[in-house]
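quick one, 135 residues, struct below
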Amino acid sequence: MTAGADTSLFNNQGSTPLIALAYKMSGVCLDRGYYLDGRGTNPRLETFTLVLQNTVDVSAKNNKGDTALHALATGRLAGVMGRGRIEAAKLLVGKRGVHVAERNREGKTAGELFAENDVEGLFQGNAELTRLLAC
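---
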């Protein structure tokens, strides 16, 4: 980011870097580099935080109508990946300009997607995020 990376660019699916990274955190890209490193930190969450700090339009939508919040809610919510996505979602929801009630092309809000994919109770067990997403 300090080298002047443009966080407003879109890929061929219409995703900004923030949305693309959120999909990666959801396992949609099937990348196994998500787990905790030797320092006990989550490199993906650190990267997400850095990209989020440098993103102007945090509610941008891709071609599917998904925002970064929708992308974080996509896929099975479980284990260390699920906990990282919950933390990333809390960071994102705390950012000014995030539209939590936004619906994607399937007509779903991020809160609805989180609830549907919550196989271990990580979302429902997080009172702060369920309150912020009005679920």
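DSSP finds six helices and no strands in the chain.
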